[in-house]
Amino acid sequence: MDTLEWMNLKPTIDDMDKWSQLWAVHDEPIPHISCRRCDGSQSIHDPSEPFVHGPLCTLRSAQSKFPWRDLQWIMRSLRQKQ
Ligand SMILES: [Zn+2]
Q1: In the prediction, which pLDDT does 79 show?
Q2: CA gap 26, 33 in Å, rounded
Q3: 61 alpha carbon to ligand 1 midpoint, in Å?
Q4: 32-53 b/e with 16+ CB inside 10 Å = b?
Q5: Could you tell me the distance, in angstroms and rounded to a whole number, from the CA of residue 32 to the centre of ligand 1?
Q6: Is the Cβ–Cβ distance between 59 and 38 less than 8 Å?
Q7: What's the gap in Å between 81 CA and the centre of ligand 1?
Q8: How many helices and strands (H and E) does the chain possess?
Q9: From ligand 1's centre to the CA of 76, what distance in Å?
């Protein structure tokens, strides 16, 4: 699968409300996304790496491992609806 194809895959979470119940976006010190259930976080610089949750996180297996991609997908589909 090439990068573009991967970026276009429809995520499991496809609306902003659901996404923001699972993830939080932070600007400092560099933009990153953190899990709301554990200490896991992911920098904007490695969006294609699977997200690493804490060992006891309840979202470890259930949710998408690519929150940046999902966020981008959601933003793009919101734009298309306007
Ligand atoms: Zn987590």
Answers
A1: 87
A2: 6
A3: 9
A4: bbbbebbebbbeeeebeeebeb
A5: 14
A6: yes
A7: 30
A8: 3, 3
A9: 25
**How many whole angstroms from 73 Cα to the centroid of ligand 1?**
21
**pLDDT for position 4:** 61
pTM of the model: 0.81
The pLDDT value recorded for residue 62 is 64
**25-63 residue pLDDT tens:** 999 999 999 999 998 999 999 888 899 999 999 888 766
d(CA 76, CA 24): 18
CA of residue 67 to ligand 1 center, whole Å: 11
Q: Give 56-77 pLDDT, tens digit per residue.
A: 998 887 667 889 989 988 998 8
The Cα–Cα gap between 73 and 79 comes to: 10
pLDDT for the residue 5: 65
